[in-house]
Amino acid sequence: MAATDLSTPIALDENELQRYAAIMAHQFAGRPLLVHGHHPHTRRPGDGIEFLDHRGYQPGDNLRDVDWLATLRTDKTQVRRYRHEASSDWTLCLDASASMATCGGRKWRQACRLTQALTYILLSLGHRVGLILFSDEIELYVPPR
Asked: Are 89 and 39 in contact (CB under 8 A)?
């Protein structure tokens, strides 16, 4: 990993990333995410059966979701939110071997840009993202969060 420079930040255009995220949201819409390579998680609110948390009542909320006991405790109408069942955990793998320093480091910089873009897109879609940085062995592991 000595050939790669992890200290140099690689700036990405926020507007371009938001555009990519919108495109990917359209691609992921209605598709099951339980495929090889990532595991489901349910950390964002949505349609599901497992309780997530409470929020204040807003006009148009389903009365079946009102938690009357929580409403009595807080003196404010509380609505139950449930965990979304289409979110997932992703782990991105980034090669940090000496071969990534070829072409004046352009290969490493491009790989970092792609990893950052994928991370941004997945996080904006409500998924959890982790990272494995490897060369001959695993140099860094950041679990999905």
From this structure: yes
What pLDDT digit, counting tens, does each position of 17-44 carry?
A: 777 777 777 766 655 444 444 444 445 5
What is the 8-class DSSP label of residue 125? Answer: T
Q: What is the pLDDT of residues 48-104, one digit of tens each?
A: 666 778 889 999 888 888 999 999 999 999 998 876 666 678 899 999 999 998 888
The C-alpha R_g of the chain, in whole angstroms, comes to 20
- Using DSSP's 3-state secondary structure scheme, residue 116 falls into helix
pTM strictly above 0.70: no
* Residues 91, 128 contacting (CB under 8 angstroms): no
Q: Residue 126 and residue 43: Cα distance in Å, rounded? A: 8
CA 36 from chain centre, in angstroms, equals 17
Measured on CA atoms in the order 95, 101, 102, 106, is the torsion positive or negative?
Answer: positive
